[in-house]
Amino acid sequence: MSLKVQLQDAQKDALRAKDKARLSTLRMVMAEIKQIEVDRRIEVSDEQIIAILTKMVKQRHDAAEQFQNAGRDDLAEHELAEIPVLQEFLPQPLTNDEIANLIDSAITQVSASGIGDMGKVMGVLKPQVQGRADMGAISGLVRSKLG
Question: pTM (2 decimals)?
Fold first, then answer.
């Protein structure tokens, strides 16, 4: 079953259960997916949905941090409450060992010899770790291995 169908089913279940917070979050995700489909005239793939969900989780973390800094803990709590709903549809996070193995494999695959090859390594890694690890952290690890 595709990720889009899973999201639609979860939205229906939340509606039946009268879970307003969950329903609101799922509607927001579906609206974002629909917007991309209309704008680009495409049917989104599971990989694109994972990228959307990953972006939305990052946005929620950033917004919550800004709200906390502004003393608006009520709004920060609302943002943080949406994150578990979004993460429910993301793949399981990679362990540190799995990340290290993927980085080593990518470096070998592109025959990277220095920091100049970082783009090639990241190009191989991105589809493998999308939604399963923080790309900023991955970039730092690759830089330290190549540098």
Answer: 0.77
Domain ranges of the chain: 3-87, 96-146
Note down pLDDT in tens along the chain; length 147 residues.
Answer: 899 999 999 999 999 999 999 999 999 999 999 999 999 999 999 989 998 998 999 999 999 999 999 999 999 999 999 999 999 999 888 888 999 999 999 999 988 888 888 899 999 998 888 778 888 889 999 998 888
Q: Residue 13 and residue 7: Cα distance in Å, rounded?
A: 10
Provide the token pair at 3. Answer: 């990720």
- Selected from 3.50.50.60, 3.40.1260.20, 1.10.10.410, 1.10.3210.10, the CATH number assigned to the domain covering 96-146 reads 1.10.10.410
Tokens of 53: 């969900």
DSSP state at residue 117: G
Q: According to CATH, what is the number of the domain 3-87?
A: 1.10.1510.10
